Fold these 3 entries.
Entry 1:
Amino acid sequence: MDRTAAQNARESLDLAFSISNFLQTGLDRHTLSILIALCEHGVNPEALAAVVKELRREAAALHQHQDQS
């Protein structure tokens, strides 16, 4: 990747991360970059959103179970 392309990619990720924070998605920069890359490779964004939601539900249930133990 040349310098200009790398700079454009960085700026695009910065913008996406700013929007993500504004929308209070709770996604960190690294996770967001992975999700964007998956979308760029043809993964359905709605399916990814469903997976993220399910993983968050599972993590919350696990934490709740651990707190009760």
Entry 2:
Amino acid sequence: MAKLTWFTYDTVMTTLEADTIIKKYTSQNIQTQKQLSADYTGWYVSALLPEYRVEPRASRTWQNPMWR
């Protein structure tokens, strides 16, 4: 099992943008947090995502054999 770490978007988002991202993550059962920015103009969104030692391999199902 991979360890879980918090990924935080580093841009300030509007309420609509933050809610859209949170909705996408929660549909995949990923824990999220929404924090108000320091100047009260927007939101920061964080998601608890798995972190692996090795990057997952790309699928070669649709890759043309000539490109390999």
Entry 3:
Amino acid sequence: MRPRTSRLNARGTQHMSTTRRATPFALLALTLAVAHTTAAPPAAQGEPEWAAAERDALRNHVRLTNPDDFIKAGEAYFDPDGRWIVFQAIPQPNAGEEASEHYAMYVARLLRDDRGGVTGIGEPIRISPTGSANTCGYFHPTRPYQVIFASTITPPRADEQQPGYQRDTGRYVWPFHHEMNVHSATVPEIFDDYLPGVPDAPPRQLSTLISREGYTAECAYSRSGHQIVYTQVDPETQDADIYIYNARNRRHHKIVSADGYDGGPFFSPDDRSIVYRSDRNSDGRLQVFIGLLELDARGEAVGLREERQVTSNEHVNWAPFWHPSGKFIAYTTSEISHRQYEIFTVQAPLSDHADAAPEELKRRRITHSEGFDGLPVFSNDAQHMMWTSQRRHPNDPADTPPSSQVWIAEIINVAP
């Protein structure tokens, strides 16, 4: 199944932004090489060791993207009803062609069996312009046929390093394309899926939502759809800060402005807080924070009321994402090894844990496979977790090299 390319009418050629969400800083290096796993329960006959190790948390694992279609794929998100996903990927080139150096943005319909279990995806539809660099897709919460993502729209400068895992250095890098801004794509296929037979379906189009100088990316909607949280790199200082854009009055509010890279933000389920990661010491050891938002009379964010630290250790902790309950957070960490990132969950320092120090918050390891596991997200009904993994599929030949792809599994219990 080769991905399908959609023809986009690019309207509004202003600039917008990339990822959990992007990598931690400009050309930040995160080592993601393959290493051994910790001891796990014995696997049943024919069961991968990672499935046995994860059986108390996850079941019915499915690889959604295939190395036959994509050189690498990842950072996927659910639509509000769990019907569609958006993800970034580099497609396998046609015979005689060279592979792209940049991620394209795709949407795909989740396929399910009679009991509702996910079995795969339909034909992926590319929603980003040819040759552009893209990242950080996210669905509108009430109009799922509208998808925001960060894009350069046109090919970025050729002197920037290729994103992703670098085999020669064993590092993960992400260039901050200064041309990147936040755009919105209208996808007729999703409109027709949600509203079949409705006349006057919107045309396929691409428009600019946020255009600022410097890298502008790592975007996500609030549950109301009236606000977008995003990261912007100041072109003069090269410092990354977190902003919230109010679509009603078109105002931008700087929310997190600490020294060092602040990024990868997401609204909490009640829109009263955000979670993000920050490099306060400029040493690459990212830590996870939550920020309690200062709200106006309409309940929309205008500033930061209080910040609480979630992790404080010698590890790299990034890509945090809220569980729909709002009680805990999933994140990616090097706690097991800098050569083996895994997904953990941790209590959110709210309510009964509001005064807890980071080391007092209960946490739990969720994934147990060789290679990289990270960028976790949850469906709104809390039934599925989706993430990016380099784990080997049981049907892969023994000599198949690791490849970052999108995986999904049913949740048994992932609470810390």
